[in-house]
Write a structure and sequence with these properties.
single chain, 218 residues, alpha/beta, Rossmann fold, 2 domains, 5-stranded antiparallel sheet, 9 helices, 37% helix, elongated, binds adenosine-5'-diphosphate
Length: 218
């Protein structure tokens, strides 16, 4: 479903979010106070405008209050990021996601009602470390402290076995959510669906179960 996003601050993080959302077919309003930055993004956003994100009247005149989702990606400067977040929440943007610089910044953002606080470097660092931790893990998404979704490559050991044969849920306590085979993704695998070597298994579970499945099941 097409959604409306406003992205404020178009540094490396903000512009990546903007380009990807636009590529996915969403409506994206990109805002930055630097004219050159706005010019650069203009082919990769529905609208790109120069505005000061700490000016409430400017944000209102751009119709920002009508957006359900805002991403505040103002870089190093904490004060404008906080002020902008405050304005967005006050004018009624439903979900405001904010890139935080540090813990103090995070605490203030929590107090003023930011809906999600993002630490891109830390989150990416953890993700990469989890991929490096194992030769088998292709990708990793942390759901909470103890639960994750990981992508694993199916080895010869499981090749030509159906999900019911493998019985991963009973044996390891985790669930195969999807099976990717080249471009095709089987998002609701049936018990009789067979796995082939090289398939990518998308598996959800608690971290201990996932580790056991990765080490013993594959
Ligand atoms: P990153 O770490 O993601 O690369 P940067 O610090 O490079 O972030 O970029 C932040 C962006 O936010 C810059 O393009 C800057 O022009 C923009 N920005 C900073 N202050 C404001 C503001 N008050 N209004 C709008 N954009 C701003």
């Amino acid at each position: 479903m097409k959604k409306q996003f406003v992205i404020i601050g178009l540094g490396s993080f903000g512009s990546s979010v903007c380009k990807r959302l636009f590529q996915l077919g969403h409506d994206v309003l990109a805002i930055d106070n630097d004219i050159e930055t706005v010019k650069e993004i203009s082919d990769y956003a529905s609208h790109a405008v120069v505005a000061n994100a700490t000016d409430e009247d400017e944000l209102k005149s751009l119709g920002v209050r009508n957006f359900d989702h805002a991403i505040v990606a103002i870089g190093e400067k904490i004060q404008p990021s906080i002020l902008c977040t405050l304005i967005l929440k006050e004018i009624g943007v439903k979900k405001v996601y904010v890139k935080a610089q540090n813990l103090k910044h995070q605490r203030v953002l929590e107090k003023i009602g930011a809906d999600r606080i993002i630490h891109p470097e830390e989150e990416m660092g953890i993700r990469i470390a989890n991929q490096l931790d194992s030769d088998k893990i292709i990708d990793y998404i942390g759901l909470s402290k103890n639960y994750s979704i990981i992508e694993l490559e199916a080895t010869n050991k499981v090749s030509n076995h159906s999900l019911v044969d493998l019985d991963v849920r009973a044996k390891y306590g985790c669930t195969i959510l999807a099976i990717k085979r080249e471009e095709h993704v089987n998002v609701s695998p049936l018990p009789d669906d067979k796995i082939v070597q090289g398939d990518i298994l998308v598996v959800m579970g608690d971290n201990k179960s996932l580790k056991r499945f990765e080490e013993k099941g594959l």
